[in-house]
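Table S2 (text version). Query chain:
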Amino acid sequence: MMLVKKIVNSINRSSLNVSWLIIIAFSILGLIGILSHDMWRDELNPWLIVRDSESFGDLIANIKYEGHPLLWYFCLALLRRIADNPVIMQIFHLAIAISSVTLFCLYSPFNYQQKFLFSFGFFPFYEYLLISRNYAFSMLFIWGFCAVFSSRKKTYIYLAILLGLLANSSAYALLVAFCLALTLLVEFCFDIEHRNQYLNQSQKYDLFLSAGIIIFSFILSAYIITPPADSYLHGGLNSGWVNQLDLRNLFRSIGRLFGSYFLIIPTHKRWLDLIVCGFIALFIAALTVIKLSKKPFALFFYIIGNSVILAFTYLRFAGMPRHFGHLYLILIAGLWLGSYYQDSAFLINKFSIKPKTIKLGERWHHIAFMIILYVHFFGGISVFIKDLFIPFSASRETANYIQKAQLDNEFIVASRDANMAALSGYLDRKLYYPELQKMGSFTLFKSGRQEVEQAEILRQINSLLTNQPDENKILLILNKPLNASQQELNIAPIKNFEKAWVNDERYYLYWVDKV
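Corresponding structure-token output:
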């Protein structure tokens, strides 16, 4: 018996050491990656909103046009008190990613190989690491919820706080938080043994306080993300709700599940791609259902989580990887939560599922799960390396050139405004936006803002040079080459910055003065 205990303790210490090696390697590489990453508009626009909002009320009003809850913006406001430099936002984001991976490696039930593959996968190692956005909170709070899930036997306070934070992270995080809260409610209502154990061990106020935290947090999040009446292009949601059956859109939505698992988004223009990818995604979902069939409450979360996000995807917004990556998090969280429960034969008996079917499903699920982890691992490593050598946006290089050439104090006209937030952030100053016909930094898609053609930009520059005698020349920055001209203006190219992932964040600099 002593020998067995020594072997078990040795294995546990070995696993713990492997976990810390993963965490340390992730932290070092993450620091290198995030400091070399060139931020783009989606990262710096929230920073500028916090920086340039004139009051607290103005800040709240501006956030409502963003389609995101408050948490990320409030964190940025606190960070600006420490350092008025967006690099601190990147360091904070790195800390979120490291904390998430730490929770996963130290507390999740997966083996060390799976922990390694996940940690350096596409979402933890790239999308929710290098790109400083509010979506990284989803991974942190979901893993935090999973790590302290067993505390619900005595108190729901910890889970309620985590759900409240999760709900105020992003719209998709709100959907996941709702599904996790619904899972807790279903368990409390139908698991008599758990309910009795909780009621015997908890404080009298615990249930009401926990429910109050969750309800308040959900209402607050829903209020903030509800767009004002004059908002348009709200998070890409300007096309309205789908209120009829559309098979192509249905398969397109299921294709997002495939994309979350295999990082390939099937094109909605090709039926064959949609059908094949949809079948594969549903097959893996079916294997997961079989895998969790002995864990009814974890299975409930997996089904309801996927259903809610896929319904939103179909009815409203197809989304980008950062959005439908939550489907991948739901898969991992469902398996993690399942580890807390003893096997139950309730569903197996109710639906007369044969033991051979369960074993076969579990075997194939393991194979599919490992394939998914390897796909994410190679995807994460490849895009991480690519980001090291190819700027995501040309914004930092352009800003560095402007500062070295001592052009940052010139009167700058910049267009398109939505693509100039990164420049405004790196230069730490406002720019003149023709779309607003005034100085600005961040972009809100609301009334008063108009898209402009290059001819209109030159017309406004001519007016500025005429009406402002102190300005004898203007530095013009465009995110597309200038193809227009005006007889009253001399236009001289300065320099182009075209090396960037994001096509519309390549910059073209010109001097403009009167003839």
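Notes on Table S2: The longest helix spans residues 2-36. The radius of gyration is 26 Å.
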